UniProtKB/TrEMBL annotation:
UniProt xrefs under CDD domains: PBP2_clavulanate_OppA2
The name this protein goes by in its record: ABC transporter substrate-binding protein
Classification via InterPro entries: Peptide/Ni-bd, SBP_5, SBP_5_dom
Segment forming the signal sequence: 1-19
Keyword entries, A-Z: Signal
Domain Solute-binding protein family: 85-474
GO molecular function: peptide transmembrane transporter activity
Keyword Hydrolase: no
Keyword field contains Signal: yes
GO biological processes: peptide transport
GO cellular component, one term: ATP-binding cassette (ABC) transporter complex
Amino acid sequence: MLAQRFVASLAGLTLLATAAACSDAGAENQPQPPRTGGTLRVVVSAKPAHLDPQRIATATEANVSRLTTRTLTTFRSEPGAAASEIVGDLATDAGRPSEGNRVWDFQLKDDIRWEDGSPITCADVKYGVERSFSSLFSVAQPYAKTYLAGTDNYAGPFVGGNNNGKGLQSVQCVDNRNIKFTLSQPVGDFGYTAAMSVFAPVLAKQDTKGEYDKKPFSNGPYKLQENTDQQLVYVRNQYWDRKTDSVRKAYPDKIVIEANGDLPTVTSNLLQSEGDWADAIDLDKNVAPNFVQQVVNDPALSSRAVQGSYGGIRYLSLNTKRIPELDCRRALVFAFNKRKFRAAAGGSVFGDYANTMIAPQLKAHKDFDLYDSTANVEGKPDVAMKLMDDQRTKGKPCATTLTLAIPEQKDIRRLATTMVETYQQIGIQIKVNGIDPETYFDVIGNPANTNDLLWAGWIPDWANGSAVIPPLFDGRLIPTKANATNNQNYALLNDPEINNDITAALEESVPERQYLLWGELDEKIASKAVAIPIIYMKALRMSGTKVRGGFIHPQFGQPDLCALGLA
């Protein structure tokens, strides 16, 4: 998912990281189910930077992408635990493994079509995967490179005659409807991986390469009609057939996605719900802190709030290249004031204090607290100062001025202020580097960026440690080409022991043993002080009086966009 996916997204930011299904499930707390028709208005804090399925990096991008992009498998669109289950999307089922989970076969459904009416074939899926290896653009989701066999010297379809006409040989078209993936190692949850947009099909004759990011060719229920600086307008795709798509309901006739980073104003307008705001919802930002108590204490308003917890983590990444001394990083972890941060965010309704990178909702979660932060949510500045003093006596003093990268938005700037105040207590000056939210993750995704601390979030692309630890901490995935923008290992951790442990965990075929390995890895990485887990995120998103069908989908930490409709 997404930086938060899928997040890494601002909420995950990351992608994050990721694609899921849509339905009318979750409308049970609404006075009536959605109807077909009308124009749904969706507010986002910044316009999605990427629409090209192979370039999706954040939770918001992944959520929006599902309007136009279907994948081999997809996540159920139901509240609760069922949302973590996958079903066939373009494929007839969730995949058929063989040879000890090293080979996976998928069969495409009948009568699935592109927006021009042409059929979707195996060649389109193969081409979509192949183009993700091109150097023409950066690809955030690492799974094709990580899992497919024979990719070391493959450079994509645009050079060398696409491997002299052979293409990527680990993706084979048995015929037009049958696809075979050969993996470099056993992957028991590859069916979940196939739900990621990096595995989405692309019709070669419609591929405009770098420009495809502005207008991808649709195989979903909507097609992109308009793409301007401030908004995206989606209208129905006449060749999408709901008989082939049992999960997407596609209620509205039109969906308008508009960027507006003024959170207090957006929240106020949604609360008043006048005019077009009655048909609107805030997709990626929680209720502004100054309105939280009003919303939670007013039954009429709280009934319109779409809320829930999910497996996302808000954290601060520590750049190990710029802060190489372990004790300097440990000092930053010990000094962090989580109470002040969460209070500025709006309180406990927005998250529980975090000690780990793998959230408690995941079976791979291990409960540990290496920095004693559970009992000291305001931090331990005395311990931090002792570590800095010890480091000074070693002749390698910790830096007293550090740069913090954030997306330049008022609410995030306010949260950054709590960090500035916190680190002043231990004699460290924080310079806040506000970056355009639309390009934030591309900027920090360049390993050559010069920020010391980086605002980040992550929502797992599926409910396992394999969707947390490798994308965020596997040093082998750090891009080496100049001007890369797809790095998600913001700490730039490249530890051979960690890398080897990641390989061992991925190769473990027994789920329960794999869960234990990911939890142990989480703790080992924490000992290296490369990230500061702050809160396990919760969502509280406001909607207008006419919006129906809202629930927080765990793959995005957002309302499931395709489940939404109007009264």
